[in-house]
Amino acid sequence: MQQPRLIANRYALLAELGRGAMGVVWRAQDQLLNRAVALKELHPPHGISGQERQVLEERMLREARTAGRLNHPAVVTVYDVVRENGRTYLAMELIDAQDLATIVQRHGPRDSVWMANIALQTLNALEAAHQAGVVHRDVKPSNIMVRPDGVVKLTDFGIAQAVDDPRLTTNGGIVGSPAYMSPDRLSGWEASPASDLWALGVTIAHAVEGISPFERTSTASTLHAIMNEPPVLHRASPALAEVIRGLLTLDPNRRMTAPQAKAVLTAVVQGHAPVPVRRKKNTAVKIAAAALGVAILAGAAFAGYQAFKPKNTTTNNSAPASSQEQNSDQWTEAAQLPIGAPLPSRRIATFGRGGDVPGWNLTGTECAKDFLTQGSPVPGSVPCDKPHSIQQFSAATPLWDKPKDTAYPGTKWLADFTTKYCTEQFKALPQNNQTLGFTGLVPTEQEWKAYNDAATPGRQEVLCVLWKQDRAPLAGTLVG
Q1: pLDDT tens-digit readout, 102-146
Q2: Residues with catalytic annotation?
Q3: Alpha-carbon distance 168 to 469, whole Å?
Q4: Does the pLDDT value for residue 392 go beyond 60?
Q5: Claim to verify: residue 230 and residue 102 sit in the same structural domain
Q6: Do 326 and 206 share a structural domain?
Q7: Which of 196, 216, 269, 427 is 20 to 30 Å from 121 by CA-CA measure?
Q8: 85 and 107, same domain (yes or no)
Q9: Is 81 part of any domain?
Q10: Residue 79 sits in the same domain as residue 113
Q11: Annotated binding site
């Protein structure tokens, strides 16, 4: 009889439990401690770059580090990390369970009381993670394991982000599953406990209705559904529907909190009438949604951009300058400025290698001390609560769902997208007034193509930047 393959002279591989594009999960026996484990083997496909392999390995290590710092019964325990013969392995708690997605697929929509119990356990795991400074970033049915006795295990912390852990990528791209992403994440904001709660709301709706509430046939239509189509709830009990709708509130500041959701879910599980949840009135859903920067991404205009045909042209298609620039949506045409000249408001400029702004190191809604001037880089950020000159108030990765080796769509296409995007974002700012100037930055072709540069990765984002028209210092963030 053939002896089982032995990893690290300790883990005997007994049977394959699952296989995906990036690896294999084995049932294994830990011969040192004489216990069964799940052994995840990273096995990337042939042809990927060394940098891509490094990112995958780092994700596996991040999963180990993150799960290792969470001591909670509803979080899958990670025992060990092994590197052998160029392969990386993760030894984990072996769970005799099916994931929630498989359960719904095989057995249909779930009962509201049953699902409330599953959601409550998942929420407890998320609370433990959030209290430890960890955001999961990929809560969805396939990452929730349910044992036959109803015990839940939240798994796959491979893309989780800890507040004291550097990000895996430096390009600001969005990582996760589109149909479960919150509007705030799609707008370019960092993942947060509130975005995990949104994803849990989508997961609950999926399980009780038998279908994902926002998943559509294309990414563009999925984004449109997230923004514009409240979930249709036929099977959820009134109390569970209240939780779903509360967690799927567009504005994260008005979204149902974890303690509020726990109170209602506990009442559903125990068969009690839940106490009405008091939350901030959501009297300005459309305004809040626009402020989060998702309107242009989710609307029909964005759908049209997603179906682009790349044209490598470098001309700007912005409208002529308006005599009343601050009261108009019109933008000036891109014209080469002398070195050191300030970039005017409402003018598309290029950033990155060979661009008008040759270097850009801001992410999120960071601030910088220097104004935008022709030929000068923006090397880094300064605290927004200190005097500063400019602030990046929004960013988008318009082709984030396409391969990163997609051909450069052209300055004209990017300028068209950015003109509309930054205008919508500026209109939504709480301090939008005539004293502020703003503009859009698009990557150069060289910057776009350098995305996979191992030393200095390029960026494929478009950026929106604002300042005071009189060039006076800013004090405090201008992003609500």
Answers
A1: 999 999 999 999 999 999 999 999 998 888 888 888 899 999 999
A2: 138
A3: 37
A4: yes
A5: yes
A6: no
A7: 216
A8: no
A9: yes
A10: no
A11: 40
